[in-house]
## 1
Amino acid sequence: MAQIYDRVALIGLGLIASSMFWAMKRAGVAGEVTGYARSSETRDVAREIGLCDRVCDSAAEACAGADLVVLCVPVGAMGAVAAEIAGALKPGATVSDVGSVKKAVIEAVAPHIPAGVHFVPAHPLAGTEHSGPRSGFAELFDNRWCLIVPQEGSDRAAVEQLERFWQALGSNTDEMDAEHHDLVLAVTSHAPHLIAYTMVGVADDLRRVTDTEVIKYSAAGFRDFTRIAASDPTMWRDVFLNNRQATLEILGRFTEELFALQRAIRTGDGDHLHAYFTRTRAIRRGIIEAGQDTAAPDFGRATKA
Ligand code: NAP
């Protein structure tokens, strides 16, 4: 595949950045890839495993001369990192990010982007419950969506170049505005994570069911909640603090529906329960038909590394 950027800088070297690096290498779309993480431990691991062509000891050094700079740090850290690199950005470069929330990240980052530098926020809808530089793999973005969130007055050529880049990494791309992005993600990702955290937290509190029983007999629904609830605490704290309005709105709706189901159970309203579960089953079928998950009973885990 043809090269899309001569120089790419990854700031933050966790799951998403490391997956991007391996996917870039697989596709051959970047000349040199530089990387920076705040801790020397992470930089040492990156050097040890060959993550990035060059690991730098400052964010500014990693960004110098880069055509694309991607901020791959938790949402709450984006603004401070943008301030740190602002002076090192090359005129004509594109700054992007991979944050799970868009409106708050744009508000935090945009004021630091110098004139002549393009800011094109993005969010790859792909992840796992693992984090850190060793957790990435080239296939993470394959057949997943990457949402691009152009800003008013964004340079079309810069936006389209970033879209081609994500497509080369395996993703499908779509454009969306920040507010709508945050609402969509509150429904599809943020609220479900909070519910999983709660469910696992509740089970953890149930003293009539012993810890070993919870683990031993968790073959069905609970096991899948535990996978989601094992996600990185820093990342998810920042998601909720920064997508407050949309997640609270969806959680309000969720609570109302939960009460309705609770009432149906108490009053023995089987029709309500059956109709509800029939509707939800159709949503699951739609996700499989759209190629966004596997119908395998173990979610395809047995065949994945
Ligand atoms: P990760 O594996 O935990 O890596 C985070 C990286 O950010 C690490 O290199 C860490 O540095 C650095 N970092 C953490 N706090 C920082 C701070 N206060 N200042 C500067 N750097 C800091 O995270 P990730 O899963 O790759 O997530 C990165 C971004 O992608 C987040 O914005 C997240 O919302 C978004 N995202 C995540 C997923 C997912 O499922 N994981 C999916 C899509 C998008 P050290 O290693 O030196 O501590």
## 2
Amino acid sequence: MNVTEIFGSNVFNDEVMKNLLPKEVYNSLKRTINEGEPIDTNIASAVANAMKDWAVSKGATHYTHWFQPLTNLTAEKHDSFIEPSGDKVIMQLTGKSLIVGEPDASSFPSGGTRMTSAARGYTAWDPTSPAFVKEHTLCIPTVFVSYTGETLDKKAPLLKSMTALDTQAKRLLKLFGIECRKVSTTVGPEQEYFLIDEDVYLQRKDLQLTGRTLFGAVSSRGQELEDHYFGALKGRVAEFMRDLDETLWRFGIYAKTEHNEVAPAQHELAPIFSTTNVAVDDNQLTMELMKKVAKKHHLVCLLHEKPFEGVNGSGKHNNWSLSTDTGLNLLDPGEYPERNTRFMLILACVLAAVDDYQGILRACVASAGNDHRLGANEAPPAIVSAYLGDQLGAIVDSIVLGKEYVPKRAVPGSIGVPESPIFPIDMTDRNRTSPFAFTGNKFEFRMLGSQASVADPNIVLNTIAAQKFSEAVDELSGAKDFEKACKDYTEKLLKKHYRIVFNYNGYGPDWEAEAERRGLLNSKTTADAVPEFFKKENIDVFVKQGVYTEKEVIARANIQLENYIKTINIEALTMIEMARQDIYPSVNGYIAEICSVIAAKRAVSERMSCKADVSLAEELSRLNEAFAKAVNKLEKDLNLPAGEQAASQKIAHTVVPDMEEVRRLSDCMEKLCSSDYWPYPTYTDLLYSVR
Ligand code: ADP
Ligand code: MG
């Protein structure tokens, strides 16, 4: 495989545009892409035609407006390029078809922003993310809005949040005498996933219908030997990864790092970062292609946050930074951060944002799947805090607590083997337990679930950072002694928001109590986290920064709750079905067999011992009775009150505990039941059958 040749071959990228578009059209389009100038509709026909010719040369017969409704997935409706021409057809894409589409919006979630009768929705071309050819179809990235202008997708608010951040960051930089055309946020999302064999997957209704195992006693071997993390790849996994890399590279996605993760059958893929909008699109495409490539290898890629109990779940690390078009990374502390007034101010603004808006940072990553991870000693806790590392931690401590700051510098280190090279030791250690960790020149937001769209946390991060930048500018512009005013303001912010800094073990037992003492939020379920969006100050920040209207914030929060309710409802119904149709009768079958063994033994000889058989049959019978009862209770509790908030509360605090009890009983029985009778592949089959 010639990587440099295939890279980006499915993408209508800069090089292709330069080759195919007339110069003035190309230049006009680039101004839109790079500087955010509104698109000149006069150039649309020329771009559409070039795009169509290029796509047809790649084997495309159809085009689609590719968009991201509020489902975490992407949506596409295909139209062919054909137009009648006499007896024949020609292939055509008009400028109008490139710029707007009109899919029926009525079957997408809108959270009440759109009445069912007003079904009309529009998709509008987003020229800042490149079009690509996938499965004979030209995919044109678009935003999706309703007839009345409310956004119905994740891309429109993401672009708005990027604009807000650009505007406010430029104002802030101007105070420091720095002029630039654009400040963009950059994101590198690390993606975790599981790979399992397709045959075993097809024998598990729960995996097929819900993406996770609803039952399953843990395997005798889990992750305790710590032998999977970074372990050598198994043959089929290595082949899958090679195929995946090649596929992603063709789509211009910078797949870079791949390795085994902590849990058996768990892996990770990290791309090189790009601008947020592109990173979001690329991650959506990556998730889709992972599943498709896995299928080719008779594997199934599970993106659920918690496919298996007892071993780690999967998340997505959102590495986030800001940089100017001139290449300045605003989160780069430089060699002397303590003297870097600009960096320290930006850091203080980011910490203030994370503290003031911790509720919505937590809420934006809340989902039924992610509830299994946050706070479960494998992902950061449900409490938002920021980790700064040794160097920045010490600088902030010196400002807030008046402690003396002993400058820490990167020192040449060596691993102690004479032949090994000397290398500078990093200034920040890794802290895997922090939800929001400073890692050298970026923050890593680690609370995101593995199947979530990367758009959500970035909409929030960009918006709240923009807000704090704008407050800083309002405070500092016109200051007589700017340097002093800036330092004072930085100190004020750091002192006010110091409680959000936590440089220790976030998994530790003391942190929850300490966080409570500091007044930090700790919402453990989606039902408790999402209502943060309804608070006035949280709605205001979106409205002020022009990202959402009040109605949109409320609609989205309601959709999030609705999604949570529906997801758990599906899980509960699947559970009831599996329990009644498969598990309960199977256990009874085994009990019947034991009983006939007892009867047979007794018929032959009074002296044959039946003690073990009797106690096993009794135990299984007792458990199965309790199981049937627990299933009935679960079914009854699925009668939910009206309204998203009330229903989600009942789901979180009644239905989920019911499901845990049903599972607990089943898992006890699985351990006692003969494998001839157990109706499903076990955890050992699921986690260890790929060679
Ligand atoms: P780790 O988290 O394991 O230390 P890396 O430091 O290699 O890994 O980076 C993880 C991710 O962060 C990668 O996707 C990388 O491209 C991304 N990243 C690096 N620099 C930036 C940046 N300035 N902005 C956003 N993401 C970045
Ligand atoms: Mg990382």
